[in-house]
């Protein structure tokens, strides 16, 4: 699950003493129903649909922190940034082995079943229709050619499209997991001050919107500020923290809901590549990832209701503005 830029699972607390962390919440409120918020969000949606990302971000920033405005945008309070040990993460109910090593068992099972079906179907056709060995050989050669063409020309996009479509059609768990994964990306990005600009929940939807087989389900962001820093050769600590938490938000959501992550390997790989490009040592990279995991887990645990309602809005195909309205209406003073 990924996106063009970042793209792209829950254990409870133990009874052991936990790492003591200062108050962590979102300084926002839904007490005042925004008289000005809704029309501004509609304007923002219009700007995003036209590709005017800078103007859309200006609208959001102008409404940030105002009564009845967008008080949750960029309002996430961060845990202290330092090197956290694995034991400290475990005391907060976080098993990194189940979180940072996602294996997509659902699609893997579907792929194996399709391969087995193809083999059995070929053998049955051979026996029933009396196909000559030469014909079977040519058919196998043709299938191998198509598979190679997909791998080389489309980076496996056709295979991914077929598997993902079958997964969404026949596995409700897979369908729900993808939605929750992307809702995690969306929510954490918004709370960290990065504006989502759109999302897709399946490879087929991505193909219809983007017209490319190489685009999978994912959430895209208004990230020109981040790209400007990357192109300038220097990424600020603030921007890196935002990127890290957003990149891990999908796998963290899956971990919190299902006890392990299946999707999001591409997100983790992108974060690893960024840290390597910045010249991080292994110790420094571990420190960044562990802090990001803890920060994101606590954020999503605290705002579980907002994530759930956001997932509902996204599953219905609502606009970015409607999704933001959902977040703002759900997170109130009692959640701070």
UniProtKB/TrEMBL annotation:
One Gene Ontology biological process: proteolysis
Superkingdom of the source species: Eukaryota
One GO molecular-function entry: ATP-dependent peptidase activity
PANTHER family reported for this sequence: ATP-DEPENDENT ZINC METALLOPROTEASE-RELATED, OS01G0382700 PROTEIN
Name this polypeptide is given: Stress regulated protein
């Amino acid at each position: 699950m990924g996106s063009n830029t970042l793209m792209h699972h829950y254990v409870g607390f133990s009874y052991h003493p936990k790492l003591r962390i200062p108050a962590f919440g979102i300084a926002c409120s839904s007490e005042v129903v925004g008289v000005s918020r809704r029309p501004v969000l509609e304007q923002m949606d219009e700007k995003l649909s036209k590709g005017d990302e800078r103007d859309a971000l200006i609208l959001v920033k102008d409404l940030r922190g105002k009564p009845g405005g967008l008080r949750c945008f960029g309002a996430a309070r961060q845990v202290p940034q330092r090197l956290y040990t694995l034991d400290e993460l475990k005391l907060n109910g976080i098993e990194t082995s189940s979180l940072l090593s996602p294996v997509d068992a659902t699609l893997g099972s579907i792929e194996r079943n399709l391969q087995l079906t193809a083999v059995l179907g070929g053998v049955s056709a051979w026996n029933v229709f009396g196909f000559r060995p030469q014909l079977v050989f040519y058919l196998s050669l043709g299938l191998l050619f198509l598979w190679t063409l997909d791998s080389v020309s489309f980076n496996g996009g056709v295979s991914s499209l077929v598997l993902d479509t079958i997964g969404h059609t026949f596995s409700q768990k897979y369908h729900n997991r993808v939605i929750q994964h992307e809702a995690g990306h969306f929510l954490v990005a918004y709370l960290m001050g990065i504006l989502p600009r759109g999302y897709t929940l399946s490879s087929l939807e991505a193909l219809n919107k983007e017209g490319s087989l190489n685009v999978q389900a994912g959430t895209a962001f208004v990230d020109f500020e981040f790209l400007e820093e990357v192109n300038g050769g220097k990424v600020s600590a603030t921007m890196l923290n935002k990127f890290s938490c957003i990149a891990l938000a999908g796998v963290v959501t899956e971990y919190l809901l299902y006890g392990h992550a299946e999707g999001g390997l591409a997100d983790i790989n992108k974060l690893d590549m960024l840290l390597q490009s910045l010249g991080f040592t292994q110790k420094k990279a571990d420190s960044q990832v562990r802090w990001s995991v803890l920060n994101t887990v606590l954020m999503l645990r605290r705002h579980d209701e907002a994530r759930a309602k956001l997932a509902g809005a996204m599953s219905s195909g609502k606009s970015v503005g409607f999704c933001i309205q959902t977040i703002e209406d759900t997170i109130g003073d009692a959640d701070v």
